[in-house]
């Protein structure tokens, strides 16, 4: 599971010669709202420069200090400033706020779309002729002419997933470019990949890009951006699979005829190799989103997580609010810091925040112990051991005595060559990356590896194309193997090669790594919003990178497995593109509502979705539930919201200074009153009544909906008034109230969950409730 690091430019060591001796300077964002539309780009840049001249000693210093001038929608600039200079600018007329880009954020497919029922002629894993899954594809014309912009690590344009055969000309509304750079020129764009830009100025204030580690262009060396792009909107490609032939089949993105545009904002961590992850800088991301808005994208997909920072310092939140105002739907990953509570990222209500769950595909590779016990394992490692038993050892027992390392973690340089040679080593996840543990066992001469989950990962098993024969097992099974090693005189093991199996039940379950609520920034907004496949997803890959990303791994692949909320996010972006193609006039909020209220909380055997540890999942794990594309385009009712509604929500949270043309009322509505498809009430003492408005978007317009209380939150009770809503036409709006009361004593701060729905006999419009008490 890979997550890219997104830095908002912390304590920078400046490389600009003019500023080499000024250690107290760093990049600040000077935010001024948005443009009025009556100035040219040159006039905007001159205006920004005039602000800098007022705090700099010369014109030359002012010019050299600017990093970005945001000219399309977002009004403001990024510049190298001292704290005093930033403070002076914050008091200037027209400046809403200045803030340093100082917080760290994180970058956080053959079978997954079939599992979601979104494949031609496929429904629920069986051939059924024309299914509802194919119906949405037909109605949406496979996403034709919808433009999806991705902020990521770049793209490998030669991948078959991005060919443009049969696609018509680029939509006339497209204003973007194909920016040239290292190994990338205008010929690499086509009628599928219609644009590519890269943003490196913010990154390079912390040191120049090492061009042996990455391309100074939209080209992807890492693989992450290629993977997410093909997941969202890759063309259908037949006869593909991972190394060793695993998951062989036809690969396709969710909306295979969308147009793609790559905005490369993520780069290798300074001072380390590519395998140690990428970082994405706030000033660069703000510039990319500003350009994406100006270029004409319809959907933005960002597999980039964040921290629990307030809106006033959250570059992603500020930029995406501008995108949402223009009805651009923004999907972001929830983060990979689960299952710890309150770790969810991208917490703003105008963002569709995506958790990660499993598919029904498995890669079983049994582990047979010398005592005849067989344990379930999974493997996609192409190299295989001979079909006999090998000596089995625990990584903590074969560690070098001179290395200070966590026992059993098999960290680089920790294993003894003498004790490890020709043995299968049991290693545990925790510190360090999974693939580096395999590389360490190989370095020490081991024959193979069993990689057991850490205790927090539960039964979820993530597979990798390791550099030696390797099998992954759950934490419980890893503990069982360890007990066998410690009790047997001469422990041995036989590792069977993996194979691809579909219809593994029950599915989905929530990934243990998927970040969870409650929302650390806005407790009265449930996050994440939705979950989608994010475990062991096969998609296109960069030919410049191995499937492990390790320097020593010289293998190259066209398609590779990856896991993370980075993988689930583009699934939702692809579905958003299909809904947008069918309903081009719907607002961003309406599309997000349609996806959320049609989700399911049931798995493939009709039971409640579980977590990786086997417990019942809840809205803090999956939001409204697991996405159902076949339902999303016809939700019946939607919860709509406007730009002004979001500004009022910010007023309630003390962040009212966002739009210079908007003034917060003395008593703004509470965040719980935001017309959101889910409902959260924190610190309730007594009772509260909140408002919701639904808009009819179904059928011929005339409809009668009845309220259902599907589940009351434990310790609380809620009622809905009125219980019947009558609609006379499409677009008709009706308001209702939800009154929530504390029924009995509960633990302060502990949340309970409930569900309510509206149904007309055809549509079911379902919403979760989360409630906690203050006493």
TrEMBL record:
It comes from the Eukaryota. GO terms for molecular function: serine-type endopeptidase activity. CDD domains: PA_subtilisin_like (cd02120), Peptidases_S8_3 (cd04852). The active site is at residues 152, 224, 566. One of its GO terms (biological process) is proteolysis. Pfam families: fn3_6, Inhibitor_I9, PA, Peptidase_S8. Residues 1-22 form the signal peptide. Residues 210-236 are annotated as: Disordered. Keywords: Hydrolase, Protease, Serine protease, Signal. Residues 673-771 form the Subtilisin-like protease fibronectin type-III domain. The keyword Disulfide bond does not apply. Residues 213-225 have a biased composition (Basic and acidic residues). Residues 143-625 form the Peptidase S8/S53 domain. PANTHER family: PROPROTEIN CONVERTASE SUBTILISIN/KEXIN (PTHR10795). Belongs to the peptidase S8 family. This is Subtilisin-like protease SBT5.6. It comes from Kingdonia uniflora.
């Amino acid at each position: 599971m890979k997550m890219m690091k997104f830095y908002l430019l912390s304590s920078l060591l400046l490389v600009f010669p003019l500023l080499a001796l000024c250690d107290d300077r760093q990049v600040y964002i000077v935010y001024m709202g948005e443009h009025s539309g009556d100035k040219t780009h040159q006039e905007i840049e001159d205006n920004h420069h005039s602000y800098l001249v007022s705090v700099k000693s010369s014109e030359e210093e002012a010019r050299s200090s600017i990093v970005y001038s945001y000219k399309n929608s977002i009004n403001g600039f990024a510049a190298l400033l001292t704290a005093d200079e930033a403070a002076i600018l914050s008091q200037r007329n027209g400046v809403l706020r200045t803030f340093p880009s100082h917080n760290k954020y994180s970058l956080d497919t053959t079978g997954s779309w079939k599992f979601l029922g979104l494949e031609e002629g496929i429904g629920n894993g069986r051939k059924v002729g024309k299914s509802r899954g194919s119906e949405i594809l037909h109605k949406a014309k496979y996403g034709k002419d919808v433009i999806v912009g991705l902020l990521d690590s770049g793209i490998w344009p030669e991948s078959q997933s991005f060919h443009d055969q049969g696609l018509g000309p680029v939509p006339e509304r497209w204003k973007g470019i194909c920016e040239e750079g290292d190994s990338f020129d205008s010929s690499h764009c086509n009628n599928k990949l219609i644009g590519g830009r890269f943003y490196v100025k913010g990154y390079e204030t912390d040191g120049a890009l090492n061009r042996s580690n990455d391309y100074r262009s939209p080209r992807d060396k890492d693989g992450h951006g290629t993977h997410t792009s093909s997941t969202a909107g890759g063309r259908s490609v037949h006869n593909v699979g991972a190394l060793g032939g695993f998951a062989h089949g036809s690969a396709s993105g969710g909306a295979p005829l969308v147009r793609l545009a790559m905005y490369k904002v993520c780069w290798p961590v300074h001072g380390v190799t590519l395998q140690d992850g990428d970082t994405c800088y706030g000033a660069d991301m703000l510039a990319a989103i500003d350009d994406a808005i100006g270029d004409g994208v319809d959907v933005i997909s960002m597999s980039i997580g964040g921290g629990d920072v307030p809106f006033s310092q959250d570059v992603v939140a500020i930029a995406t609010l501008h995108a949402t105002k223009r009805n651009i739907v923004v999907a972001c990953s929830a983060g990979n810091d689960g299952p710890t509570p309150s770790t969810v990222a991208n917490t703003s209500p105008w963002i569709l925040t995506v958790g990660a769950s499993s598919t029904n595909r498995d890669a079983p590779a049994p582990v047979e112990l010398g005592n005849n016990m067989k344990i379930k394992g999974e493997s996609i490692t192409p190299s295989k051991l001979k079909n006999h038993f090998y000596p089995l050892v625990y990584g903590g027992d074969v560690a070098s005595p001179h290395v200070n390392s966590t026992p059993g973690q098999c960290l680089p340089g920790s294993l003894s060559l003498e004790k490890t040679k020709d043995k299968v080593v049991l290693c545990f996840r925790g510190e360090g990356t999974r693939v580096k543990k395999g590389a360490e066992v190989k370095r020490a001469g081991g024959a193979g590896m069993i990689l057991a989950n850490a205790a927090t990962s539960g039964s979820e098993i993530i597979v990798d194309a390791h550099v030696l024969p390797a099998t992954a097992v759950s934490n419980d099974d890893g503990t069982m193997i360890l007990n066998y090693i410690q009790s047997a005189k001469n422990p041995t093991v036989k590792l069977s090669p993996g194979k691809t199996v579909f219809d593994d039940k029950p599915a989905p379950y929530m990934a243990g790594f998927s970040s969870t609520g409650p929302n650390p920034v806005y407790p009265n907004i449930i996050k994440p919003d939705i979950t989608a496949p994010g475990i062991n997803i096969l998609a296109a890959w960069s030919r410049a990178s191995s499937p492990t990303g390790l320097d020593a791994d010289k293998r190259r692949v066209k398609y590779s497995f990856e896991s993370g909320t980075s993988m689930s996010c583009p699934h939702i972006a692809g579905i958003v593109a299909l809904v947008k193609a069918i309903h081009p006039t719907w607002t961003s909020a309406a599309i997000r509502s349609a996806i959320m209220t049609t989700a399911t909380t049931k798995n493939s055997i009709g039971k409640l979705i579980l977590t990786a540890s086997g417990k019942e999942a809840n809205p803090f794990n999956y939001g409204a539930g697991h996405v159902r594309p076949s339902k999303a385009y016809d939700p019946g009712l939607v919860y709509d919201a406007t730009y002004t509604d979001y500004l009022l929500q910010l007023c309630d949270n003390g962040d009212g200074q966002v739009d210079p043309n908007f003034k917060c009322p003395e008593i703004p509505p509470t965040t719980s009153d935001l017309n959101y498809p889910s409902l959260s009430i924190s610190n309730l003492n007594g009772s509260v009544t909140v408002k919701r408005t639904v808009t009819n978007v179904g059928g011929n317009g005339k409809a009668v909906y009845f309220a259902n209380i599907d589940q009351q939150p434990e310790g609380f009770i809620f009622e809905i008034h009125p219980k019947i809503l009558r609609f006379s036409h499409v677009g008709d709006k009706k308001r209702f109230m939800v009154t929530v009361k504390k029924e009995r004593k509960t633990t302060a701060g502990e949340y309970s969950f409930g569900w309510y729905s509206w149904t007309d006999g055809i549509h079911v419009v379902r919403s979760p409730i989360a409630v906690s008490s203050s006493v």
